[in-house]
Amino acid sequence: AADKINLIPQDFFAELCEQIIQHLNHKIPGVDTAELCQRIQTSGIEINVGDLAKIADVVSFLFSTAARNSLSTEELVTTLGNAVTALPKHAVQVIRHVWNEHGKSISVSEDARNMATLGQFVDIKWKLGVAMSSDTCRSLKYPYVTVMLKVADPSGQITDKSFEMTIPQFKNFFRQFKEMAAVLETV
User: Fold this and answer.
1) H-helix or E-strand spanning residue 55
2) Position 186 pLDDT exceeds 50
3) pLDDT for position 114
4) Helix (H) or strand (E) holding 163
5) Distance in angstroms (rounded) separating the CA atoms of residues 34 and 53
6) 3-state DSSP: the chain helix, strand, coil percent, rounded to 5?
7) What is the mean pLDDT of residues 159-168?
8) Per the database record, which ranges form the COMM domain (predicted)?
9) Where are the domains of the chain?
């Protein structure tokens, strides 16, 4: 991951580190590496989402381990300097700054770590469509609903999941959501 960090400009790497700290503090559900990767690519840098996700995992592990061991900023930087694969200078500077500003705020309670074994729902989008025809059928004209979910997995990576439903499937889906809402009203 260290060689891929070289590709990321300092301001984007700082933003990634800030998002990781926010995730570790349970202020945001995860790091949206797909969105950040798209912005990095728009700026002309060639990097893919998989590589950025690996970098996010490494930095997240670094920060959570440093928090668990209550490392000071200097101890963290010294540990990074002694690593087998040296990080680029700009990355160490960003890590030093972010850890100095926010390192003490990371909570590493056992309860929080145990709760993070499930994914977390972030957002839902949907659209209604109609299939007009295909190469095998001239006149389909059947409606369908496409649902797109954003979910933060336990490591904090935000992923998109999508699926299509027929109208009867969607009605069943909607009915189940109404039942959940009714139950939540009683709590």
Assistant:
1) helix 49-68
2) yes
3) 46
4) strand 158-166
5) 8
6) 55, 20, 30
7) 88
8) 120-187
9) 1-116, 118-185
pLDDT surpassing 70 at residue 137: yes
Who contacts 27 (Cβ-Cβ below 8 Å, separation ≥6)?
Answer: none
Nearest Cα to Cα of residue 21 among 86, 101, 91? 101
37 Cα distance to chain centroid: 11
Burial 124-153 (b: 16+ CB within 10 A, else e): eeeeeeeeeeeeeeeeeeeeebeeebbbbe
For 11-155, where are the E strands, in sequence order? Answer: 120-131, 142-152
CATH architecture of 118-185: Roll (3.10)
For residue 104, what is the DSSP state? Answer: G
Angle (nearest 5°) at CA 111 between 108 and 116? 85
pLDDT of residue 85: 63
What whole-number distance in Å separates Cα of residue 183 and Cα of residue 187? 7
Pair of tokens at residue 48: 């893919």
Angstrom distance (rounded) from CA 65 to CA 63: 5
Q: Both tokens of residue 121? A: 């729902």
Both tokens assigned to 131: 């299939």
Q: How far is CA 155 from CA 115, 127, 184, in A?
A: 12, 29, 28
Among the listed ranges 41-45, 107-111, 173-177, which one has the minimum average pLDDT value?
107-111
Instruction: Give the span between the Cα atoms of 103 and 22, in whole angstroms.
Output: 11
CB atoms within 10 A of CB 1: 15
